[in-house]
Amino acid sequence: MAKTESTLKNMVLTLLVITGVAGASLGFMFELTKGPIEAAKKAKQQAAITEVVPGFNNNPADEVYELKSKEGFDLKFFPAKKDGKLIGIAIESMTTKGFSGKIKVMVGLKPDGTIINYQILEHKETPGLGTKMADWFKTDKGNQSVLGKHPKNNNLTVSKDGGEVDAITAATISSRAFLDAVRVAFETYNENKDNQPVADNTSVEEGGSL
């Protein structure tokens, strides 16, 4: 009986040692990779801001602030300035209406709300169909592009719903979701424009140009 107890104690001790070593290794790897992962995320974020609102010479990430959309999403706003003057705003927006759920988009707006550019940040849409939204809505073909459009002056919904935008072929749900993310970005910006910290250094009127 004593031999059996000894064997059981050894097994438990061995399992505890293995668990401890594994936990320590995972903790070490997490700490080792946390910095590079965070740096990569910031680099990707900066690249997206640069693409959707080019020409700034400040660091928009240093002036980032958050606003909650009426849908309950926490959106990040990155003021893009040149020589202290606001030239646009990059908005990290989202929707949950995608074919496979959440879609995150970085949308660049002029101070008056006109769309400058966009970049898809995150999605799980169908390869070869919904994934086409990365380029589809900035392609100058038919009524695909939303660039240069103003969400208040243009009906930025798919043509199937009576709007002005050609949906991605065989991916209407993904198209609706993308346009919904753009709408969320614009409406949240527009509804809070007077209370935003970037509002004081621009006098651009809605519908105007830079």
What this model shows, in words?
This protein is of the alpha+beta class and 210 residues long. 36% of the residues lie in helices and 21% in strands. It contains three helices and five strands, in the order αβββββαα. It has helices spanning 2-52, 133-136, 172-192; strands spanning 65-68, 74-82, 85-98, 101-109, 115-122. It has a five-stranded antiparallel sheet. β3 (85-98) and β4 form a beta hairpin. The chain is extended, with a radius of gyration of 24 Å. Mean pLDDT is 87; it is low at 198-210.
Give a quick summary of the entry.
This protein is an alpha+beta fold. It contains three helices and five strands. Helix content is 36%, strand content 21%.
| End-to-end C-alpha gap | 87 Å
- The average pLDDT value, as a whole number, equals 87
Helix content: 25-40%
Structural class: alpha+beta
| Strand line-up in the sheet with most strands | 1-2-3-4-5
Stretches where pLDDT is under 50 for at least 5 consecutive residues are 198-210
Classify the oligomer: single chain
Radius of gyration: 24 Å
Counted by DSSP, the helix tally is: 3
**Sequence of secondary-structure elements:** HEEEEEHH
Largest sheet properties: 5 strands, antiparallel
What is the molecular shape? Answer: extended
Number of strands: 5
The percentage of residues in β strands lies in 15-25%
